[in-house]
Amino acid sequence: MNGAGQPGRVRLRTLTFIRWVGVVGQAVAILVVHYGLGFHLPLAPSLLVVGVSAVVNLGVTVIMLERPAAVRLGERAASWFLAYDILQLALLLYLTGGLQNPFAVLLLAPVSVSATILGALSTVALCVLSVSAITVLAVWHLPLPWLESGFALPFVYVVGIWAALGLAIVFFATYAWRVAAEARRMSDALTETQLVLSRERQLSALGALAAAAAHELGSPLGTILVAAREIDADLPSDSPIRGDVELLISETVRCRDILARLAARPEGDAEAFRRLPVSAVVELAAAHHAGNGIEIRLVAGAAEGTDAAQPTILRSEEILHGLGNLVQNATQVAQQAVTVETRWSDSAVTVTIADDGPGFPPGMLERLGEPYVSGWRDGNPHMGLGIFIAQNLLRRTGGRVSFANRPEGGAEVAVRWNRAILEKAAGDEAALAAVEDGDP
User: Fold this and answer.
1) Bridge partners of residue 338, in order along the sequence
2) SS3 letters for the chain?
3) Which of 200, 281, 360, 382 registers the highest number of CB atoms within 10 A of its CB?
4) What pTM value is reported for the model?
5) 28 pLDDT band (50/70/90 cuts)?
6) Torsion-angle region of residue 223: left (phi > 0), alpha (psi -120 to 50) or beta?
7) Quick one: 191 exposed, middle or buried, by C-beta within 10 A (0-12, 13-18, 19+)?
8) What would the mean pLDDT of 42-53 be, rounded to a whole number?
9) According to the model, what pLDDT value does residue 440 have?
10) What angle do CA 70, 72, 78 make, to 5 degrees?
11) pLDDT tier, 380 (very low <50, low <70, confident <90, very high otherwise)
């Protein structure tokens, strides 16, 4: 079952509003047909059926007013809600000509709503209920009061209407469910991308905090160490506290060394490491995925035919994690080595990640970048978001990702940026936000 079927995903307010629209439309249609067009319908029973739905919906509305917070229904409750609408409409059609009534097409509405917000099992159940309803209505119903006495639609035409409605119910339900499921998967994948980026930023902030703590605590620890050594120098050799003073000195030196290592880490968000040559940023992204017996070969230089200087870019979490994801994917399928090549010219910066593995499976290239695309890893089926997340993170920086299989074997992923955008973002962090919003 898809995610829409999880408890609390369907708003009661939405379903109630849809029913109010149906109740008002049914009442208006009955009155217009009876009084305006002169078709003498069984007015009292028809209005009674509509009135019962109005009373039920009014009760639901009162419940919502008593509970200001948004009321959400689970899968089962929403299914019963829509099943009632199907049965109510079927009873109204029974009183007004069955399938000869052109409004029989409205039986598609509850099924379409179910396919959009509920799971597959609930949608199938409501489809079965709807098809059963039109089957009964094709045979048993009150006659439609035609203006010409004795007129009736041929039975074969009624059967045709039944077949058309049955096929339409199944088709629209299937189509709407597939489209809605794809939209839900995309929404979930984008949410996961935001969570990954948020986690990367938290880690970066933690590194900045560590660097700041190391800087601020360095001076007091130095003072403590000087004072402790002076005390140690003034103590007689047989002093009972000499051992404690020596322990204080050794632990202070240890703390100072730990803080020095923290301050030296480039993960700290120090200004010196905010902007780096593009090859250094690529090396940082790839370094986290070295090992596992796979060699990572780093190649960097100006593009052939140009002597452009290497650009300095912003060391952003989007680039680090996006490239890191692509390198990680390559190392997981590579046989011996992964080559990460960084090239730049006066107008563009390109990073190419190539492996010596089996390449992308047939039929997958055109779908790469979609969420939850299945593939094979270590001989096992794999469903992941790695490429989707990487592609979306890199797009936030202005990068364009392309995928290909190399003629000599293995897969190749190329990321290309407009050099001016990357350098502008490095000089002005507000430019990165403009890139994320789609501004050139």
Assistant:
1) 296, 355
2) CCHHHCCCCEEHHHHHHHHHHHHHHHHHHHHHHHHHCCCCCCHHHHHHHHHHHHHHHHHHHHHHHHCCCCCEECHHHHHHHHHHHHHHHHHHHHHCCHHHCHHHHHHHHHHHHHHHHCCHHHHHHHHHHHHHHHHHHHHCCCCCCCCCCCCCCCHHHHHHHHHHHHHHHHHHHHHHHHHHHHHHHHHHHHHHHHHHHHHHHHHHHHHHHHHHHHHHHHHHHHHHHHHHHHHHHHCCCCCCCHHHHHHHHHHHHHHHHHHHHHHHCCCCCCHHHCEEEHHHHHHHHHHCCCECCEEEEEEEEECCCCCCCCCEEECCHHHHHHHHHHHHHHHHHCCCEEEEEEEECCCEEEEEEEECCCCCCCCCHHHECECCEEEEECCEEEEECHHHHHHHHHHHCCCEEEEEECCCCCEEEEEEEEHHHHHHHHHCCHHHHHHHCCCC
3) 281
4) 0.50
5) very high
6) alpha
7) exposed
8) 91
9) 42
10) 145
11) very low
Q: Where are the domains of the chain?
A: 3-188, 196-271, 274-436
Q: Which two tokens stand for residue 43?
A: 């007015």
pLDDT mean over 3-21: 69
Provide the pLDDT for residue 91. 93
pLDDT in tens, 147-177: 566 667 788 888 898 999 999 888 888 888 8
The β-bridge relationship of strands 337-344 and 10-11 is: unpaired
| 180 token code pair | 């809605």
Identify the CATH homologous superfamily for domain 274-436.
Answer: Histidine kinase-like ATPase, C-terminal domain (3.30.565.10)
CA angle 12, 13, 14 (to 5 degrees): 90
Q: What gap in Å lies between CA 262 and CA 282, rounded to an integer?
A: 22
CA gap 85, 78 in Å, rounded: 11
Q: In this structure, what token pair is assigned to residue 105?
A: 């097409």
